[in-house]
């Protein structure tokens, strides 16, 4: 899933802080099992996964994750869509009053509770995927796209999908449509040695309970609703 040392290192430096606490393996041991992943990229990833410290300012972490790959933060009028693996391709999509009204209508269904809001967010993620797909050329994207399945500018790896979902969440926040959650830092799992490839997701944090939820549409085909899972459960899945 990793395009280069820059993409892997910059992404995980911004997002992975404190996610994994496993430090049993040395970087050299990790590299020996890296397989098709770039050796340099895996070294950068492993060092960041095992050496990162928790961040106290998730908004700063999110902003840094965007700026370190020269990706603009979204606004309520424009969003840059990542695609083609590692945000190698970017398509700027304008958002008009009709789009904002549609998002408001979708999120209105979530006002009653945090659970209802997560369902509404999932509906909005599916709508957003369909909204930007024709312009980005991603209407044919498949679930779990990787170098082992299907590649190209019309596909998305988890670097792309996690950033795109985070962009939507930030837009919803800017529009004050999210009432029961805050936008949290992106999180990653998997280090190959545990039998799982590196994978990242957007995250919501429930305001009252503090519980974190993965909002992950890399596991779904174009236009489908994302997985919405407790983060601790998401961290254990493959």
Written account of the structure:
With 238 residues, the chain is an alpha+beta fold. The chain has one domain. The protein is 40% helix and 16% strand. The chain is built from eight helices and six strands. A four-stranded antiparallel β-sheet has the order 3-4-5-6. Strands 1-2 form a two-stranded antiparallel sheet. Strand 4 and strand 5 (212-216) form a beta hairpin. Helix 1 packs parallel to helix 3 (39-51), helix 1 (5-15) runs antiparallel to helix 4 and helix 5 runs antiparallel to helix 6. The chain is globular. Residues 1-57 have low confidence and may be disordered.
Strand content: 15-25%
Strand order of the largest sheet: 3-4-5-6
Q: Nearest-angstrom radius of gyration? A: 17 Å
- pLDDT < 50 runs, ≥5 residues: 1-57
Number of domains: 1
Q: Mind describing the biggest β-sheet?
A: 4 strands, antiparallel
The separation of the N and C termini measures 14 Å
Q: What is the overall shape?
A: globular
State mean pLDDT (0 to 100 scale): 81
* SS field, number of helical segments: 8
Topology (elements, then pairings):
Blueprint (H helix, E strand, L loop, with lengths): L4 H11 L11 H6 L6 H13 L6 H10 L10 E6 L5 E6 L2 H12 L5 H23 L21 H17 L6 E9 L9 E8 L5 E5 L10 E4 H4 L4
Antiparallel strand pairs: 1-2, 3-4, 4-5, 5-6
Helix pairs in contact: 1-3, 1-4, 5-6
Key attributes of the depicted protein:
alpha+beta; 6 strands; disordered N terminus; 40% helix; two-stranded antiparallel ribbon; four-stranded antiparallel β-sheet; 238 residues
